[in-house]
Design goal:
Helix 1 links the parallel strand 1 and strand 2. Helices cover about 50% and strands about 15% of the residues. Helix 1 packs across helix 2 and helix 2 packs antiparallel against helix 3.
Length: about 80
Amino acid sequence: MKSGIIGSGAMGSGIAQVIATAGHTVVLFDTNGAALQKAELSLKNSFAKLVEKGKLGKEDADRCLGNISYADTIESLAEAE
């Protein structure tokens, strides 16, 4: 299953994290490139903290991050359910 999230703010990023952690792929969409970069950095930091606290293994965190893609065009959501 591939999910699409419109908006990469705190809520959108959080939803993307939950979906990715559940093992699904997700496209995080925002027309603001700076917001997408901020979201990507925030997600990397969140997963790093989970690894640091021992709640998630490094390989699992990397897999979760790999489940998330970032897009700035609405067409990128075409394959999302």
